[in-house]
Design goal:
76 residues, mainly alpha, Methane Monooxygenase Hydroxylase, Chain G, domain 1, 3 helices, 0% strand, elongated
Length: 76
């Protein structure tokens, strides 16, 4: 869980950097690269959380929570 929090804090830093870039009207190519980096980091973190949640539910044979997670995923 500490790894997830650390990753989210890094993504937050990237987002704050994006805000500063937008406010200072940074070149759009630099902004796009930073957006892609932030999105990739958030996607990776999401995958880790999803994987961890599913493994936990599966190890406990918790089919109810597995169904809830699968429904959440399908709404994406």
């Amino acid at each position: 869980m500490d790894d997830i929090v650390l990753r989210l804090k890094k993504v937050n830093g990237q987002i704050q950097g994006l805000i500063r870039m937008m406010e200072s009207r940074e070149n759009c190519d630099k902004v796009i690269v930073q957006f892609q980096a932030a999105k990739a980091a958030l996607d990776k973190t999401y995958s880790l959380v999803l994987n961890s949640s599913l493994q936990e539910c599966m190890s406990q044979h918790d089919s109810e929570n597995i169904e809830k997670i699968l429904k959440l995923i399908s709404k994406k």
